[in-house]
Structure formats: C-alpha cells, structure tokens
Fold:
Amino acid sequence: MAKITPIDVIKGITGKYGSGSNDYFATNKSSNKIHLAKMTNPYKGPASEKQLAQQSKFAKKQAAVSAWLNANKPSEKNGAKGTDAYQLAMKIKKSMHFSCISQVIYKHLDEDGKVELPAAHPDLPGGEGEQTGGGNGGNTNPTPSPSTGGDKPEL
Structure:
C-alpha cells in the first residue's frame, strides 16, 4: 500500500473546520497522523463541581510535570543530555513506547506532586521490580542482563 505524506498546509491543520461546523481536525505530532472528528452533541451548560475539581486536579499535575521537565531537561546547566533522572525517564519512555516524556512523568507522579522514578525499571535491561504495564507484552519477568550470559568464555 502506498504511503501518503500530507503537504505542510494540511499537516498543520488543527481545530474546528469552518465557523458553523462541528468538524474538528487533530494532528498527532508524534505519528503525523491526521484525524477528523465530528462533535454531534456538544455540552453547552456551565461546568459542574466535579468538572471544576477535575480541571483543578489536572492543572496541579500539569504544573508539577512542567516544573520537573524545566528543572531536568537538557540545558547549559544540566548538560546536553539533561540530568540522570531525565535520561532514565527517556529510557523508560522508549522501552514503554510512549509518545512523549510527559507520559512517563505523569505515571510516576505521586499525590504530593513529587516525581519518583524507579531506580531500576522492569522494562530496562537488568531492571527489577513489578511490571507496571507496556514494554514486553505482559511478561512480568525482568529483561535478563547481558552480563549474565553463561555460554561465553571469559577472556
């Protein structure tokens, strides 16, 4: 099957299409896939107490994630690859096939807004601990370390 690459004008489309329409375009930046959705019954009333509480909870989490990323991302202060915690988060991101590092930070964010990355992650080589999802198809055994191979002679 042929692969289609959209032109730049189409690639950048996001949001509502037309003033009276309920059609929306969304571009997934990690996969460059463009989706078209139609909102059939939009809510028009004021936000409920539960919705406001959820929005507030999300805003607090987003602020904590942004602060962590700003403190650990690659910079002159943190080096070209960022801090050790940032590099570990990137390894976890790749092993769990997440599209962005923020997903890793959300996963390891506690109720107090502190990010606690595991010292050893089960999806990384030599990792230990309980499997928390993704990575190796539901297998809860950690990936064996390359240094434990017994059939190679020592030099």
Notes: The two ends are 50 Å apart (CA to CA). Residues 128-155 have pLDDT under 50 and may be disordered. The first strand starts at residue 15 and ends at 16.
